[in-house]
């Protein structure tokens, strides 16, 4: 049985690895990186060389090697959750023809009742709206009211490939 401090040391070490390699990984196509313990969920550009990313990660420490799992049929399992990439045509939703004021009121009410509405559903709606209202299109007084709701923090658009990276301890 390992030490009870093992997971803490592993987390500290992976944090250090992420800190040291962040710039190189971004330069080589990583758009988004999230981790839970030693499982990493990574979004990359479509033309990214995944083997090169793997080489970068595996060159950090010869005693620790990452493995990769890529999406199949636009889906990938991460922490026992199936994540599926979808392509939604905003013009078919009808959201693009709503007056800005109506949309703003709807979103404000939705945010107030987040305990009733599932967060995943709200995020899906916001992602659809972000496609219709990119930040650069919000340039008049009416559309600017949507800015704090649609873009409260930096956002990554998911027009990329998904990969799952897991470090494996070498024996």
UniProtKB/TrEMBL annotation:
Residues forming the Reverse transcriptase domain are 1-97
- Which SUPFAM superfamilies does this UniProt record tie to the protein? DNA/RNA polymerases
Q: What is the protein's name according to its record?
A: Reverse transcriptase domain-containing protein
Source species of the chain:
Rotaria magnacalcarata
């Amino acid at each position: 049985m390992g030490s009870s401090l093992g997971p803490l040391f592993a987390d500290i070490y992976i944090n250090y690895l992420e800190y040291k390699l962040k710039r190189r990984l971004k330069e080589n196509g990583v758009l988004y990186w999230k981790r839970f313990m030693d499982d990493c969920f990574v979004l990359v550009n479509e033309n990214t060389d995944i083997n090169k990313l793997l080489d970068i990660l595996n060159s950090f420490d010869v005693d620790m090697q990452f493995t990769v799992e890529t999406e199949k049929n636009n889906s990938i399992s991460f922490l026992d959750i199936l994540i599926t990439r979808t392509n939604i045509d905003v013009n078919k939703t009808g959201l693009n023809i709503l007056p800005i004021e109506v949309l703003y009121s709807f979103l404000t009410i939705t945010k107030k009742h987040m305990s009733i509405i599932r967060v995943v559903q709200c995020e899906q709606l916001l992602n659809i709206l972000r496609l219709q209202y990119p930040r650069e299109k919000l340039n008049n007084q009416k559309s600017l009211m949507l800015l704090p709701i649609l873009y409260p923090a930096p956002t990554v658009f998911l027009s990329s490939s998904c990969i799952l990276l897991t470090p494996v301890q070498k024996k």
